[in-house]
């Protein structure tokens, strides 16, 4: 069984496996984190102005049609090869779904709720922190879920531009036609994505039900 | 822009290969998911399971999914089409199921009362009502698969992704940009065409929908 051979390879090459695994996770966390820092404030700023929201939704929608492979590949001539070009490309992948879901989450808040808050004498800052943010959170989590999956898959492609990570094993496996090696990369990537999907799906449902 | 004007035939061929991969895989998936979708839509518990399982499978990154097929199917078009069909299957089953669940119960009863058998009811009543949902699913699946098919070039399936990979190997930015933008243009036009079709079907079935 090649799956068993794959596990044997991992057991014998633990340091190589875990450094690639850590690199994969590191790429995902850094890019998701930076994407959140960009997309959330931008989403809140843009959501209340119909024109800006329209522009943001269309630009983000257009960016999403560019295949992730092309975005990663395009980072190479501009930024060179290695970890950082990959991280920046992954940020470009992660921002659109986050921005879309933030804007949608805020726009779907009932205006009467906001009127009530203003009527109670809440200032802009209070409304943002106490009303808008909590009500938009389920939609934002849905955005994080989509972004996380995009980024985990994109990080698998980062190997093509020298970003390292678990994609290296898939690359080596195909180059050497070594099936166990291929699985050393493919299985953990698939498992990471499935874990992210289940975890954020659960979180999303929990936060939606509380309302 | 020096490479593109001199290699229009290469690019055209890649575009056709790309379309072939997308149409064949979405087509195969449509046939399978019509059967599974119609069958599972009537069984709420089964349908919930189907939605959860397909959602989880859909999360698997394309490179990993293609790689998982290589030990079984080798490299080339076969594993690529299998992987792409699987992605469309997950989208289509969900949409088709939702379409059939949207049919009001009294419509079904009326058809039954008029003496329609199960097959005639399916063909003349249910399918037309569910059609906008089915086309909507085909639209999402097509746009998604057009993007994912670029990665399939890595396992020798050809298409526009092959131009992007050549660009990476040769450090040739123009190829990367041409491949990427053509894929995006293909996805945007497919989205536009299918959304027009979806709109028309919704108007004809007398429901404005979302």
Automatic annotation (TrEMBL), chain A:
<feature type="domain" description="ABC transmembrane type-1">
    <location>
        <begin position="21"/>
        <end position="200"/>
    </location>
</feature>
<keyword id="KW-1133">Transmembrane helix</keyword>
<dbReference type="GO" id="GO:0055085">
    <property type="term" value="P:transmembrane transport"/>
</dbReference>
<comment type="similarity">
    <text>Belongs to the binding-protein-dependent transport system permease family.</text>
</comment>
<dbReference type="GO" id="GO:0005886">
    <property type="term" value="C:plasma membrane"/>
</dbReference>
<feature type="transmembrane region" description="Helical">
    <location>
        <begin position="151"/>
        <end position="170"/>
    </location>
</feature>
<dbReference type="InterPro" id="IPR000515">
    <property type="entry name" value="MetI-like"/>
</dbReference>
<protein>
    <submittedName>
        <fullName>Glycine/betaine ABC transporter</fullName>
    </submittedName>
</protein>
<dbReference type="GO" id="GO:0031460">
    <property type="term" value="P:glycine betaine transport"/>
</dbReference>
<keyword id="KW-0472">Membrane</keyword>
<dbReference type="InterPro" id="IPR035906">
    <property type="entry name" value="MetI-like_sf"/>
</dbReference>
<keyword id="KW-0813">Transport</keyword>
<feature type="transmembrane region" description="Helical">
    <location>
        <begin position="87"/>
        <end position="106"/>
    </location>
</feature>
<feature type="transmembrane region" description="Helical">
    <location>
        <begin position="56"/>
        <end position="81"/>
    </location>
</feature>
<feature type="transmembrane region" description="Helical">
    <location>
        <begin position="182"/>
        <end position="203"/>
    </location>
</feature>
<dbReference type="Pfam" id="PF00528">
    <property type="entry name" value="BPD_transp_1"/>
</dbReference>
<feature type="transmembrane region" description="Helical">
    <location>
        <begin position="24"/>
        <end position="44"/>
    </location>
</feature>
<keyword id="KW-0812">Transmembrane</keyword>
<dbReference type="InterPro" id="IPR051204">
    <property type="entry name" value="ABC_transp_perm/SBD"/>
</dbReference>
UniProtKB/TrEMBL annotation, chain B:
<feature type="transmembrane region" description="Helical">
    <location>
        <begin position="47"/>
        <end position="69"/>
    </location>
</feature>
<keyword id="KW-0813">Transport</keyword>
<keyword id="KW-1133">Transmembrane helix</keyword>
<feature type="transmembrane region" description="Helical">
    <location>
        <begin position="75"/>
        <end position="93"/>
    </location>
</feature>
<dbReference type="InterPro" id="IPR000515">
    <property type="entry name" value="MetI-like"/>
</dbReference>
<feature type="transmembrane region" description="Helical">
    <location>
        <begin position="20"/>
        <end position="40"/>
    </location>
</feature>
<dbReference type="InterPro" id="IPR051204">
    <property type="entry name" value="ABC_transp_perm/SBD"/>
</dbReference>
<keyword id="KW-0472">Membrane</keyword>
<dbReference type="GO" id="GO:0031460">
    <property type="term" value="P:glycine betaine transport"/>
</dbReference>
<dbReference type="GO" id="GO:0055085">
    <property type="term" value="P:transmembrane transport"/>
</dbReference>
<feature type="transmembrane region" description="Helical">
    <location>
        <begin position="140"/>
        <end position="164"/>
    </location>
</feature>
<comment type="similarity">
    <text>Belongs to the binding-protein-dependent transport system permease family.</text>
</comment>
<feature type="domain" description="ABC transmembrane type-1">
    <location>
        <begin position="15"/>
        <end position="194"/>
    </location>
</feature>
<dbReference type="GO" id="GO:0005886">
    <property type="term" value="C:plasma membrane"/>
</dbReference>
<keyword id="KW-0812">Transmembrane</keyword>
<dbReference type="Pfam" id="PF00528">
    <property type="entry name" value="BPD_transp_1"/>
</dbReference>
<protein>
    <submittedName>
        <fullName>ABC transporter permease</fullName>
    </submittedName>
</protein>
<dbReference type="InterPro" id="IPR035906">
    <property type="entry name" value="MetI-like_sf"/>
</dbReference>
<feature type="transmembrane region" description="Helical">
    <location>
        <begin position="176"/>
        <end position="194"/>
    </location>
</feature>
């Amino acid at each position: 069984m090649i799956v068993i051979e794959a596990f044997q390879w991992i057991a014998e090459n633990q340091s190589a496996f875990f450094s690639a695994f850590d690199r994969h996770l590191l790429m995902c966390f850094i890019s998701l984190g930076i994407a959140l820092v960009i997309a959330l404030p931008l989403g809140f700023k843009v959501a209340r102005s119909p024109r800006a929201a329209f522009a943001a939704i269309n630009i983000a929608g257009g960016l999403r049609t560019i295949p992730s492979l092309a975005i990663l590949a395009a980072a190479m001539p501009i930024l060179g090869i290695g970890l950082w070009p990959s991280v920046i490309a992954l940020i470009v992948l992660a921002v659109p779904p986050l921005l879309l879901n933030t804007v949608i989450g805020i726009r779907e808040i009932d205006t009467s709720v906001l009127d009530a808050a203003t009527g109670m004498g809440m200032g802009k800052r209070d409304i943002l922190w106490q009303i808008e943010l909590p009500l938009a959170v389920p939609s934002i989590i849905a955005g994080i879920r989509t972004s996380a999956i995009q980024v985990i898959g994109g990080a698998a492609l980062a190997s093509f531009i020298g970003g390292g990570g678990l994609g290296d094993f898939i690359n080596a496996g195909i180059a050497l036609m070594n099936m166990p090696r291929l699985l050393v990369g493919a299985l953990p990537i698939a498992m990471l994505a499935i874990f992210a999907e289940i975890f954020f799906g659960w979180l999303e449902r929990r936060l939606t039900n509380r309302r | 822009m020096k490479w593109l004007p001199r290699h229009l035939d290469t690019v055209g061929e890649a575009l056709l290969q790309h379309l072939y991969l997308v149409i064949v895989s979405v087509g195969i998936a449509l046939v399978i998911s019509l059967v599974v979708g119609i069958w599972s839509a009537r069984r709420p518990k089964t349908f919930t399971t189907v939605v959860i399982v397909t959602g989880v499978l859909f999360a698997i990154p394309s490179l990993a999914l293609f790689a998982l097929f290589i030990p079984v199917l080798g490299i080339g078009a076969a594993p690529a089409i299998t992987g792409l069909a699987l992605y469309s299957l997950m989208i289509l089953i969900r949409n088709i199921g939702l379409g059939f669940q949207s049919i009001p119960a009294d419509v079904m009863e009326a058809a039954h009362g008029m003496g329609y058998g199960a097959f005639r009811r399916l063909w003349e009543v249910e399918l037309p009502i569910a059609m906008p949902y089915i086309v909507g699913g085909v639209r999402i699946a097509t746009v998604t698969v057009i993007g994912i098919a670029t990665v399939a070039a890595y396992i020798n399936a050809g298409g526009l992704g092959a131009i992007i990979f050549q660009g990476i190997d040769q450090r040739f930015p123009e190829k990367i940009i041409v491949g990427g933008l053509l894929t995006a243009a293909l996805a945007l036009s497919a989205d536009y065409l299918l959304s027009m079709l979806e709109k028309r079907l919704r108007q004809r079935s007398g429901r404005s929908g979302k």
